[in-house]
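Submission sheet (multi-component)
Chains listed below:
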Amino acid sequence: MLLTVLSNERVRRYLFQAVFALVILVFGYVLIANIQAELEGIGLEIFPFVSTKGSFPFIDVSADFLDQRAGFSIDQTSFGFDYSASDSYSRAFITGLLNTIQVSIIGIAIATVLGVIVGVSRLSSNWLVSRVATLYVETFRNVPLVVQLIFWYVAVFLKAPRIGDSLDFFGIAFLSVRGLALPEVHGTSGFGTWFIFVAIAIVVAGAVRYLLTRRQDETGQPSYPWWGASGALLAIAGASFLILGAPLDVDSPEVGRFSYEGGMTIRPEFTALLFGLSIYTASFIAEIVRGSILAIPKGQTEAAQALGFNGSQRLRLVILPQAMAIIIPPLTNQYLNLMKNSSLAVAVAYKDLFDVGAVTINQAGQAVPLVALLMAAYLSLSLTISAVMNGIYSRLKWRSARQ
Amino acid sequence: MTLKRSVAILPLLLVALAVIVFAACGDDDDGDATDSPTPGDGTAAPTDTDAPSGSHSQILQDVIDRGSLNCGVNNAVPGFGNLLPDGSFAGFDIDYCKAVAAAVLGDSEAVDYTPLSASARLTAVQTGQVDVLIRNTTWTTGRDADSGLTFATTTFYDGQGMMVRAADGFTSVDDLAAATICSLEGTTTELNLTDRLPDAELVTYDSNDTLQTAFIEERCDGWTSDKSQLAGRRSEFPADSGGPEALVVLGETFSKEPLGPVTIDNDAQWSDIVNWVVIGTIAAEELGVTSSNVAAMAADPPSVSVARLLGVGFGGEAVTDTGLDVDVTFMQDVIAQVGNYGEIYETNVTPIGIVRAGTLNALWTDGGMIYSPPFK
Amino acid sequence: MTAASRPAPPVLPPHVVAFRWARANLFSSPGNSVLTVVTVVMLSFAAFQAARFVFATAEWEIIEANRGLFFTGPFPRDEFWRIWVLLHGTAALSGLSWRLWGSLDLRRPLAFAAACVPLYIFMLEGDALILTSTCIATFAAAYFAAWPVRFSRFRDRARSTTVWLWILGFMAAMLPTALYPSFLPGQGGLFSHVPDREWGGFFLTMVLATVGIAVSFPLGVLLAIGRASTFPVIRIFCVAYIEMIRAVPLVTILYMSFFILRLAIRHETSVLGIPITGYEMSVVFMAMLGLILFSAAYIAEIVRGGLQAVPRGQVEAGQALGLGGLQVLTLIVLPQALRAVIPALVSQFISLFKDTSLVFILALTDLLAVARIAPAQPGFIGHHAEALLFIALIYWVVAFSMSRASQQLERNLGVGER
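Outcome: structure written.
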């Protein structure tokens, strides 16, 4: 009886999976119960956001250690988020998260541009340029990023002039080892009104682009929808800006004794991290770009040549749009890598999410929940990037299917 | 089809869950029963039947069974804990690791050093990864009470100071109110500075090495750390950056940093041993026992205090048992192989340019804080 | 075309050839000329700065004094013979492999070796010099011993023997002599008497990388097969594992391994009377585990790509031959899938090698950590640009050699030629 049941293919499948699930669940349970037991041995809780006193999975909500005063300072904040040493651990955590987001977004933009340039250069007809591009890729790909980051920070960005000898860019911007000081723009009283005009301008620009695109599709004549839209945007936004009497206030930096007064200062730690991340990731993006350009049939280039396109037109209008479809999936991986690699900020004194997490572990002694929290935060960042890139990819596919 | 399949899986999952709950309930009881006395380790459990439970040290037993002491140390602080080119460790804290090994095992070289990062060091003691942590760790209420740790007698009274470039002309910490300050991240130092100079801009590094370069390149105006570390860095400041004279350590000390060995809370015997090894080195200096004369003094003790320290009889009096679970002559091994407090200080800390006289680390008879409770 | 149509190309003087080559490759258009000039200026500036640092500013004594630390960390000096045994074994097998698989064009390797001679003389003295020389001699001896085999009928047998020797040698060096309880690293194999907390420097980096590759590769293949499986429970588990791990940075995995998994492993628990946890793990082991867990997810993703590239017809053909599911998988699908993804796999191995540098956050004394510790020694304070450049060079040489070896492997296996 049992044997006949076991000989049934479907029964065997279910049984096999049930055993597998059982093993995994037992293993997972043992892990969690063990961690809890060990932590209780040293008087800590596994998940202090909720009290786990009493037997495991029965939990009841109680005090939250993340509300305690952090006490450590974070010299870098992003997106205008305020933080001071007397704020809570959770606020410190968010500051770190925003710092990670900021360096990732800017890094992704720079790495993409640099990667495309280097990737295209590797295929350049200019012998020297293609060799230099190859040298670039082979050098930066094969040395660990941490080593590069420390090197950039210590050997390049810290070698900038002392603050007293700041490089002066026409009195508007200054560069020294204390950072790059730039003028900062604040909105004045008329700024809100102007903002409404900008919104109107964006709507008008969208309409212009739509109409011009339709005309182009109908007549076959190039109508330059992007130029038209930008023109409309600039005209409306610019005119209203002037009419409202320039509702912006420029705060220029001045060289002080210890730091720049006024304006905004981009610190060398941020620059070093950004630079290192972009250069490293660009060397991988360059290889992706090169591979996908090579994957495009040579006939495409020849056809474009026959149509009388010059080199840059061929690249811009024929090759790169086709390469995009092949590029996007591996490019997404590189973007994810860049975001994840930004966790190496700890080596160059930039206060990113991981760094704040590590300091909090040291201060609060709550390693288990904080590591879990860190992983959850990075997981959601990764999912966001993946979702955005998937959106772009399906849009591209949809567009190429339409044409 | 797919719906049917998932419906079929559900009961199996339920069975699986039930089995897990049973299995785990059974094992939870086991775990608690064996684990409650000491979360240290269970490997040596069968051997301690002769000792009364509660007074016997599990860690001591582990160390003896293993034949070596696991000591958590720093590897990049000159004078205190430093990895040398030949792969050995040297420094003030390292010598205290050796002293504990000499006391327990009779061999100061029977130490396995585990370099620990600042964030991992307390966890390492809590989880028994190291038997003792001697890594410039400040004694604070939080660490002593909340983290399940015990601090032995302070080996080095440190305090937070501020180092600046001589050319900048700062004379007090207040001159730096709006300045940029460099510090190591995640340390008590960082927290003290945010209290002392709330308006200063603080750049925090994960290694002293990067920090030093940043300071040389004038990324910051002040470098704050424990004064001992600042002195060590100052004495070795590269000549091409001006040498030690280019730097000034400001007089003000704006925090108390008593540094000492750390052990786990639930093994009082073990904590006592570590504590009395430290005290013993201090007592030896008070009594004038040095590594060169310890053998002679043990053979013919000049006073009853020396005899008690070295665990020998004096004038027909029987040897006093310390009750420390180690050989009564443990201090003989410590002093012969490592030295007394003064000698340890002299070999490690004096070379990095920290003068002992007149500081808290002088003997109490010289106006310092180094004081030994009596061996009785 | 032009060359072929001419009856006999006139022999041109070299400066004319150079001129024509330059015009064709460097100055073919005004834009290109500007690009060339700008590149030359930038290159010369960079080269000048680099040369000035290397030959004038830098003080290389820190490397010379600490070469022991850089290569082995706090490894006990009287146990060094173990490392020399390992190096000689590796040299012999490398020599064999080079002759059996390697490129026959020796100009570049020889040029590279020649470039290394000054470094070799500068860095070494005494025993180290003698033993390094015998290593090189062993390499050469093995190379010439295998000389006639490459083009004989014994080649394939020699190749499979060499692969087995590598595997056995690796196991003898790294794996335990008895399974329980000495399965912790540093408690078995060639290094049984050196606890792993005394491993360090380049040696630790290579141990982390090789053990990481050797363990995460099969694990990754299993995960990939699990992901392609028709069992939904297994598939869901594998997908969840792969995607979770790939979404977070390695440093958080290392922290998880050190702060969380270590606790879970050290607490004693038995399920149905079988003890499954209760082991005290070293930091090196937990770092290794973190690297393996991390890398396996990436390898799984790469192998999945390879599995998808195997045509469905291959599976059907295997089934038609009467092979079982497991046989089809191991004999038909996997070999083709793995062969298709060799470049991606090797670049993942290179990543793992580079990623070992992140164990510095757990205070392990790996190559990068030594470059951060050495400049804290009295006398060398602040000289870390030298230390960093030196380790960057080591990382680069290993990573670059790995990528070159993978290209050679592709050529040998004829990937892309069909």
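Remark: Chain A touches chain C through 58 residues (CB under 8 Å).
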